[in-house]
Amino acid sequence: MGRAFVYVILGGGVAAGYAALEFTRKGVSPGELCIISEEPVAPYERPALSKGFLLPESPARLPSFHTCVGANEERLTPKWYKEHGIELVLGTRVKSVDVRRKKLLTATGETISYKILLIATGARALKLEEFGVDGSEAENVCYLRDLADANGLVNVMQSCSSGNAVVIGGGYIGMECAASLAINKINVTLVFPEVHCMARLFTPKIASYYEEYYQSKGVKFVKGTVLTSFEFDSSGKVMAVNLRDGSQLPADLVVVGIGIRPNTSLFEGQLTLEKGGIKVNGKMQTSNDSVYAVGDVAAFPVKLFGETRRLEHVDSARKSAKHAVAAIMEPKKSGEFDYLPFFYSRVFGLSWQFYGDNVGEAVHFGDYSSGTFGAYWISKGHLVGSFLEGGTKEEYEAIAKATSLKPPVEDLAELGQQGLNFALTISKKPQPALPIEVSRSTSGLVLEKPVYAWHAAAGLVLTASIAGFAYWYGRRRRRW
Ligand SMILES: Cc1cc2nc3c(=O)[nH]c(=O)nc-3n(C[C@H](O)[C@H](O)[C@H](O)COP(=O)(O)OP(=O)(O)OC[C@H]3O[C@@H](n4cnc5c(N)ncnc54)[C@H](O)[C@@H]3O)c2cc1C
To answer: What is the E.C. number (predicted)?
Structure first.
């Protein structure tokens, strides 16, 4: 016994929501599309969980942040899916998939068959136990990947007002959570093994600016060491963390942000994997013609870099989903996915954006004391990445456009002196139409209020933070 659909989306996160909207725009008929998700709620804007959701006052709560409000599109409530004849199978884990026979088996024992499958299973948070540290089941140790985690974090946060929090990991989840906890008047210590925060994106100079800013908000940094064990009270709650450098920090709350792992296990041995994800072509199609993959789980060709990458950020999830649906519904009209990697952050009144790749030599520009500054990355004589803090809309658009054009750069000192003018000049020169939606990329998430938001670097940075963590523990290194 089972149901059959023309299109099945496996996973009900960000990419699933944007794919559903695109399916309706491309004319899917009622009854043709089904979304199966382990989460009990319709797709929502996951980045809200570490931002608006954690605000001490007027926090964001569903249904306000269902997709696709983050891109200023329609908000798809459960009613919307019903009205469009889209079947939402929620709170249901898919436990196996047979791509040859085009069938899925759910944990409730139902078989669902499809003609086309869109994999949008995202990723899961890595657990401390995977690196040999026990105790993350304690009620005051929190991870942050889904709504249940976010509710748990809010509960613990509320129970330890003015208490001590230890945040493990200096990547974007750690940085976002540290900011949110500080805003909630909790004493925060951020612990990470690298020499500075956001180590895979920030240069030491950029990092020191943000670390000083965080410190001015009361956040303490303990660098170059790692968590080795917890101390528990008689009720099993963590009351302190032990670090490898021999120190101990009191803790009423521990937040762990040590990276993620893409949810590929259902497809191992059935589809080609690469870079820890499911390999797709420029149409987001996997090694099986009837199966597409999008979002955090997909490893796709990034034309700009000339190589396959797996990115872990929301803009990529939204746009890859849209592209896959266009390729499914209008195969003759759709070209290759052409994407400029982009991430951004706003926290404590600060705001930065990054485009492209942070490889090669970094050239800093601007006045770091004025609050408007940045860096370009030059590789093989071309500009390949741009970072800007405190820019205007026009300036952010200029660095995005300049990065997408990969202009040649000969004199690095001269580039540093020109600073933003370099991107502004390049971007004003008449150019052939850009293949990417630069202006769309610069739009923020509606729910991510500027003061609290830390739309930081998923993609490269998060991928890198996983590697960093593996190195950090040096115990059970894995490749993904
Ligand atoms: C707290 C937080 C803050 C973030 N902030 C930012 C930010 O500011 N900027 C940014 O660019 N990115 C941010 N990200 C990353 C961004 O949210 C992800 O890149 C994006 O959610 C990826 O979308 P996705 O659809 O691929 O995966 P997800 O949104 O993770 O969705 C995957 C879905 O698949 C379901 N699923 C998985 N396996 C199964 C199964 N076997 N059966 C049924 N269902 C299954 C999951 O339950 C989930 O619903 C943040 C992430 C988190 C966790």
So the answer is: 1.6.5.4
- pLDDT tens, residue by residue, 409-467: 999 999 999 999 999 999 988 765 444 333 333 333 333 333 223 333 333 333 333 33
Task: Say if CB 409 and CB 415 are below 8 A apart.
Answer: yes
For ligand 1, atom 45, the nearest C-alpha belongs to: 11
Whole-number pLDDT of residue 440: 34
Cβ pair 218, 227 in contact under 8 A = no
413: CA distance to ligand 1 center in Å? 41
Longest dimension (CA), the chain: 69
Q: How far is CA 132 from the centre of its chain?
A: 25
- Looking at residue 304, what is its pLDDT? 87
74 burial (CB, 10 Å; 0-12 / 13-18 / 19+) is middle
Evaluate whether 396 touches 386 at the Cβ level (below 8 Å): no
Distance from C-alpha of 165 to C-alpha of 167, rounded to nearest angstrom: 6
Q: What is the CATH number of domain 2-124+261-329?
A: 3.50.50.60
pLDDT of residue 345: 78
* Position in ligand 1 atom list of the atom nearest CA 294: 26
Name residues contacting ligand 1 (CB within 6 A). 11-16, 36-39, 46-47, 49-50, 93-94, 120-123, 144-145, 173, 263, 266, 295-297, 312-315, 317, 343, 455, 458
Q: Closest residue (by CA) to atom 19 of ligand 1?
A: 313
Q: Whole-angstrom distance between the N-terminal and C-terminal Cα of the chain?
A: 36
Atom of ligand 1 nearest to the CA of 297: 26
Separation of CA 187 and ligand 1 centre (Å): 28
- In this structure, the residue with its CA closest to atom 38 of ligand 1 is 121
Give me the pLDDT at residue 450, please. Answer: 33
The residue whose C-alpha atom lies closest to atom 30 belonging to ligand 1 is: 122
Confidence at residue 431, expressed as pLDDT on a 0 to 100 scale: 65
Q: Do domains 2-124+261-329 and 349-431 have the same CATH topology?
A: no
At the top level of CATH, the class of 128-258 is: alpha beta
Q: Give every residue of the chain whose pLDDT is below 50, as ranges.
A: 433-480
Domain regions of the chain by residue span: 2-124+261-329, 128-258, 349-431
Q: Whose CA is nearest to atom 37 of ligand 1?
A: 121
pLDDT at 432: 56
Q: What is the pLDDT of residues 327-359, one digit of tens each?
A: 999 999 999 999 999 988 778 878 899 999 999
Class of the CATH-defined domain 349-431: alpha beta
Is the pTM higher than 0.70? The answer reads yes
